[in-house]
Amino acid sequence: MIKKQLIMEKALELFAKQGFEATSVQQITDHCGISKGAFYLSFKSKDELILTLIDHFMMEITSDIDHIVKNSPNDQLLYDFYHKTYHYFYKHLDFAKMFMKEQTQSFNQEFIFKMRHYDKLHEKTILTMIERLYGEEVKHTKYDLIYCIKAFMKMYGELFFSQHVSVDFHLLAKSLVEKTNILAKHMTISFVTEEHSKMIEFEINEGVTKEQMVEILGQRMEEMEESIEKESLMLLKQQLIEPTLSPAIVKGLIENIQSHPHCKWIAFLLRDYFKSII
């Protein structure tokens, strides 16, 4: 196992049990069976490790959900959204517990900013899903519906994350699809308005610049062995620098990297960057 990956996995176990503040670098290195020097070769600080963990998990689920919203058929979309999200967090239960606990307890400003960033990305994806499914039917209530869906996710998640109960994801997803459809079709009074949505758009639409994307792709390519995913990244990087490929080829290259565990976030960023042509 790569040392950086080992540190992340072992640290996550401690963070889930003790929280960020109560876990020291010494405890992490003892749990990993490595020296502090080896730790600092991988991470500059505990804070950098924490933020790397958050990025690792949130990039993956954000990218997966974005892919579902863009590609699942309408009659399956809402079910796939709920099922995938719950299944992911249940599969990574240690992260889910840490994620839920630290959002309410942390005073680390960078952590708070990062979680806010991912939360806004999540809201944007939910809004896209709502508009695709219900269209003009929810014109005046769709922003409120975003928060209803987020509340479903949080409260039902807390129920089984805290009690370690066996989960029937199929039944849970079907139940929430029914509830969401009822709200979408019958809700008439909206508290959250379009004004709130403009604030959301303002906060998350700054996006990643072309130069930043080129740098991100270059860094990721250096970390990867020769593969079709690495070759796809190379072609996408060249497309950013000097566009020559057709939209269909660009879309295919992004799909090539979508399933690679270390490229999910890059696929999400590229889809957003190239959205006008694909």
UniProtKB/TrEMBL annotation:
Coiled coil: none
DNA-binding region(s), residue ranges: 24-43
Alphabetic keyword roster: DNA-binding, Repressor
Limits of the HTH tetR-type domain: 1-61
Source species, domain of life: Bacteria
Pfam families reported in the protein's UniProt record: TetR_N
SUPFAM superfamilies: Homeodomain-like
Gene Ontology molecular function, alphabetical: DNA binding
Full protein name: TetR/AcrR family transcriptional regulator
Source organism (scientific name): Lederbergia citrisecunda
